[in-house]
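User: My advisor, Dr. K., asked me to get a structural model of this assembly before our group meeting. I'm new to this, so sorry if the format is off. These are the inputs:
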Amino acid sequence: MRQLFHTFHLNHLPAPNTTNPHLSLLTYLRTTMTRLAKRSKTPLLFIALTLLMIGCERTESSSTRTANQVSEWDMDISEAWVRPTKAGMMSAAYFNLSNQGATADTLVRARSTVSDDVQIHRSYQKDGLMVMEEQPFVDIASNSVRNFAPGGYHIMIINSTIDLTVGDEIPMTLFFSSGMILEQMMPVRLQP
Amino acid sequence: MVTLFRSHHRLSLIPLYLLGMIVLSLTACMNDYKVIDDMNDASFELVNQDSAAVSFPSDFQGDYVVMGFIYTNCPDICPLITQNLIAIQKGLNYPDNVQFLGFSFDPKRDTPAILHRYKEVFKLDKNFQFLTGETAMVEQLMDSVRVRTQVSMQTTTESGQEIYFLNHSDKIMVMNPKGEIIIEYGGSMPSVPSLIIQDLEPLIR
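Assistant: The format is fine. Below is the predicted structure of the whole assembly, which you can bring to the meeting.
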C-alpha cells in the first residue's frame, strides 16, 4: 500500500471541477480510485473501492429529493374550497395543509389555470382596520396543520379569467420550498 | 316581635316585587336602543347596482336597514361581511320591512356594473342592494358612519396590471325606521348574524 501511494503521484489526477463542487468531487474520487485500483492490480482493493463508490452514490441521491420520496413530504390538502366569482373579479381559495412529515416545509407559490395572478395572502386586524397582505411564503412546521381560512391565510385569485360558479371545480397547484408540488381540484362553494 | 317583623317583611316585599315586574315589562316592550348616529343630518345621493338613483337615508325611512361596507376587489373579508348580511336576511325569513345594503367604499373601481356582477354571484333578492356613487359623496358617507379606509398594498401583477388593496373598518350596522343607527357590530365576525337576528326579531314584528 505504501508503494502504491509512492508510485501514483497526485499530479497524475484530473483537477476537480470547480463549477459543480459536489458532483465534481465524486467524479474526482471515482476516477482516482479506479486508477489506483488498476495500478495496484489488487482485485480485493478494486472491490472495496467499488463498494465505497456505491456508498458515495447513495449519499448523493438521498440529498436530492424526488417525487418518489413522498414519505419525506407527507403533506395533505383537505377541506379545500374556492369562493364563487365572475370573470375579471377576485376570488379566494381556502384549505388545510397538514404536514405529517418529520421535516418542516414552506409554501412559496400558488398557481391556477383560472388566473394569471395567484398570490398568497393573509387578512388580520390591525389598529381597528382589516388588513390584507401578500405573503412571500408560509411555513408549515412538521406534524402540524396550517389553516387557510376566511379572515386569515388564503390564496388570492386575482381577475379570474372565467366565471367560478357554485358546483365548479378549479385546479390549484401549490409549490413548496422542498421542491414538492401539490395539485388538487378545488370545489367552488359559497362557504366551507 | 318576631311575628311583627315577619308581617312587615311580607308587606315590604310585595310592592317591591310589583315595581320590579313593571320595570322589567317596560324595558322588554321598549327595546330601547341607544342611538349611535343620527343619519338624518345629511342626504347622500348614490346609485345602486342597476344604476338607479338612491337617496340615503331618506329612501329607506320606515324600514329597518341592515348595512355592511365592502369593496369588490377584496376576496376574503368583504365576502364574509356580505355573507353575514345574507345570513341575517335568511335568519329573519326575508322580511319585507328590512332592507339590506352593501355600501362600496371603493367607488373608483366599484361601478354599478361591477356591483351588479357582484350581486349576481350571491344571487340576492330585491331587498338587497349594493350602493356606490361619486368619490366625494362616498367619502362623506364613510366619514359619517366612521368607516375608515387606507390604501394598503399596491402591486403590479404578473400580467402587468396595477392593483391595490384597502385596509378598512369591519362593520355591520342597523338603522331604525327613523334613520338612526342603533346597532353596530364587527362585520365579518361569525357570531354577528345570530346577534343581529336576536336584536332585530322583536323590533320588526
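One thing worth pointing out at the meeting: The interface with chain A takes residues 72-77, 79-80, 83, 114, 117-118, 120-122, 148-150, 152-153, 155, 157-159, 161, 163, 165, 167-170, 188 of chain B (CB under 8 Å).

User: Perfect, thanks a lot.
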